[in-house]
Amino acid sequence: MNILIGIVLFAFAGLTQAAPEILCEQPVFYFGERNNSAKIRHTFTLKNVGDAVLKLGEAKASCGCTRAGTYLHELLPGETTRVTLQLDLRRRYGVQNKFITIPTNDPLHKRYKLFVNGVALAKIRTNPDSLVLGAIEPNTPLTRIVRIYSTDGLRFKLSGIKAKLGLVKTELKTIKEGEIYDLTVHVPPVDRTTGQVNDLIYINTDHKDLPYFSIQVRGVIRDALIISPNPVDLLDTTRVRYIYIRAGAVSEYTLLGATWPDPAAKVEVLPATHFGERIRISNIQINDAVKNGHLVLQTDIPGKETIQVPIRVAETLKSLK
User: Fold this and answer.
1) Most exposed residue of 5, 196, 223, 272, measured as fewest CB within 10 angstroms of its CB?
2) Pairwise CA distance, residues 75 & 79, whole Å
3) Quick check: bond before 302 cis, omega within 30?
4) In whole angstroms, how far apart are CA 231 and each of 184, 226, 258, 288, 294?
């Protein structure tokens, strides 16, 4: 009986294949809080704790600010290699969580990751970090103030302030020479009733470690009604489309009717749901009237008695023969 068990165990052991296994005892390195002019370097040790040759591919970084040094690409059982990871914090701010991914032939770790994380502190700070305008009323100007100040007693000057798209205007005021400034951002009245206001303000400094930085500006234009989708997107195969409508800048309104540019289509105003009121358009035919037309809504909103929602038609991809 013991002989039979031994034969079975020997046969089972023969079926077990040798395999590599990658191990890093500390795959995450926390560098704490560092100035964002610094470059972080850390070396990880990888070991093959399996019983077959471990093969390592080329490392791929999570972003361009991170790169890995050279290392051995084949490790015998018990062999180690060192991988140095460098993270460039220049012009970065806040929590940083970067990593590299190394392809391996370890059956349990096909993509092995090494992490470097911490907090990048800027010598020149802005409050707020970005300018979130929220809902913007059409034809209503907005003004916001961003404070720009130094840390660690740094002295600096600002110049060349410019909005990338020119959607906002800026005005700089010195609060404390070389240390504290207030940047007033003016958003001119927007005559559109849908869409977004997104811009990027570039600011030059005379500091060698931070020659420039940027402040993002973003907001959403809030019309009387929120209509989705807007425009009404169609494919050339679309036959039924739902449009959802809910209150935007107004608290109360009544939808009196809706008209489609092709009278052959059927337009129904359906009972409201938690998504808002629904318009169901069926028997849609894609023709010139639809391609060049609008969904027209009638409401009781003063100044918005008629709302035209543009229609946009896209062609489906035809199979190649």
Assistant:
1) 5
2) 5
3) no
4) 34, 12, 15, 17, 9
Could you tell me if 290 and 307 are in contact, meaning their C-beta atoms sit under 8 angstroms apart? no
Domain 124-221: give its CATH architecture. Sandwich (2.60)
Residue 4, pLDDT above cutoff 70: no
CATH architecture of 17-121: Sandwich (2.60)
pLDDT (0 to 100) of residue 196: 73
CA–CA dist 172, 158 (Å, integer): 9
Residue among 76, 80, 129, 120 at smallest CA distance from 97: 120
φ, ψ at 10 (rounded to 5°): -65, -40
Residue 320's pLDDT is 34
CA distances from 146 to 129, 180, 267 (A): 8, 11, 48
**Alpha helices (H) along the chain:** 2-15, 288-291
Query: Please, what CATH class does the domain formed by 225-314 belong to?
Result: mainly beta
Instruction: Quote the tokens at residue 40.
Output: 């972080």
Q: Break the chain into its structural domains and give their ranges.
A: 17-121, 124-221, 225-314
Whether the full predicted model's pTM is greater than 0.85, yes or no, is no
